[in-house]
């Protein structure tokens, strides 16, 4: 699944560099022959245009990826002289976040960007904003109704598993009776099920490979270490490991080092800076990670700004921004890690 560096690809491919890709660097704020009434497409650019106030309601930063979401949104907004960002205190409490969004509605912001603590629980306040004439950019955790948002942008959990499976598959395609194990995330989350399904579907293309074990962790360093230790004790011989999350991967790597194991390759997930650094050093089992890019928050700000200015997206024929943008789960290994290093989250 090749990545692309075309203008359109920078918007729709995952994890374009936060410094200048996606909508901002690839578009123009001026329509052609605008004064003459020409109806040619107007698209958003970094050049100052109509002033837009964007309300941002993000999560509590209790995880490296979630902290990066908040940082990406705030840093992106600073790039635009015509954007004012009204940011709430991050919260994972649904009632508190609903109240925060209602406050932003009452302030009559031009556009809302919301990563809901619970998509279903915040659907009604999304609907309220839309009915009030405030377009909503729904970030990652989707609302229960498409009427609650104008545009959704988020990651591809199934695609993460697919990319990880194909990467491992290609590395092991010539090995007879190859064995792989999986360190998943929280099993009660739909995203975990999607990641596992994508991984399993990819492995179907490699009949020489068998998944021999799977453990579910909790997206924490501690759970990653504990569950990886159990996997290592139960499986004395395997050729590859896919770990769903780079944060829990820190713990998994500790367990691997403590066990003195270096007889397999490991693929991570999400795109943490620590994972990138380990891949670049190339002195351990971690050889790649598949992205679930927090840069999607920067892209959400781009989309919100375009909505507030009534602009479209460069590289597309339509006059409006799309209603659904799924980021691509690119594989980062030693061949391209330098490119992605600036996007790594702590």
TrEMBL record:
Its main location: other. InterPro entries: Peripla_BP_I, SBP_2_dom, TAT_signal. Residues 27-49 are annotated as: Disordered. It is found in: Cell envelope. Residues 1-24 form the signal peptide. It holds the Pfam family Peripla_BP_4. GO terms for cellular component: cell envelope. GO terms for molecular function: carbohydrate binding. Belongs to the bacterial solute-binding protein 2 family. This is Ribose ABC transporter, periplasmic ribose-binding protein RbsB. It comes from Streptomyces formicae. The lineage of its organism: Bacteria, Bacillati, Actinomycetota, Actinomycetes, Kitasatosporales.
């Amino acid at each position: 699944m090749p990545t692309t560096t075309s203008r359109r690809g920078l918007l729709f491919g995952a994890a374009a560099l936060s410094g200048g890709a996606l909508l901002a660097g690839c578009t123009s704020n001026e329509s052609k022959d605008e004064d003459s009434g020409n109806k040619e497409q107007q698209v958003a650019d970094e050049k100052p245009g109509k002033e837009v106030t964007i309300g941002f309601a993000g999560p509590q930063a209790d995880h490296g990826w979630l902290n990066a979401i908040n940082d990406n949104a705030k840093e992106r907004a600073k790039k635009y002289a015509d954007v004012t960002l009204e940011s709430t205190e991050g919260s994972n409490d649904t009632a508190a976040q609903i109240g925060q969004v209602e406050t932003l509605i009452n302030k009559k912001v031009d556009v809302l960007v919301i990563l809901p603590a619970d998509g279903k629980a915040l659907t009604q306040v999304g609907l309220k904003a839309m009915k009030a004439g405030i377009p909503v950019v729904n970030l990652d955790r989707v609302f229960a109704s498409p009427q609650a948002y104008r545009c959704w942008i988020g990651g591809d959990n199934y695609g993460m598993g697919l990319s990880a499976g194909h990467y491992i598959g290609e590395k092991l395609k010539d090995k007879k009776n190859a064995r792989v194990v999986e360190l998943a995330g929280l099993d009660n989350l739909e995203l975990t099920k999607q990641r596992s399904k994508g991984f399993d579907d990819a492995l179907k293309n490699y009949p020489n490979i068998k998944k021999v074990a799977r453990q579910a962790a909790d997206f924490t360093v501690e759970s990653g270490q504990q569950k990886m230790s159990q996997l290592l004790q139960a499986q004395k011989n395997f050729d590859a490991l896919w770990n769903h999350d780079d944060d829990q991967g820190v713990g998994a790597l500790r367990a691997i080092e403590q066990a003195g194991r270096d007889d397999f390759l490991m693929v991570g997930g999400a795109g943490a800076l620590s994972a990138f650094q380990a891949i670049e050093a190339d002195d351990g089992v971690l050889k790649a990670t598949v992205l679930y890019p927090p840069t999607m928050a920067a892209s959400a700000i781009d989309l919100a700004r375009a909505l507030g200015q009534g602009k479209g997206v460069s590289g597309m024929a339509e006059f409006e921004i799309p209603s659904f943008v799924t980021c691509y789960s690119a594989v980062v290994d030693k061949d391209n890690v330098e490119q992605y290093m600036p996007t790594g989250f702590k």
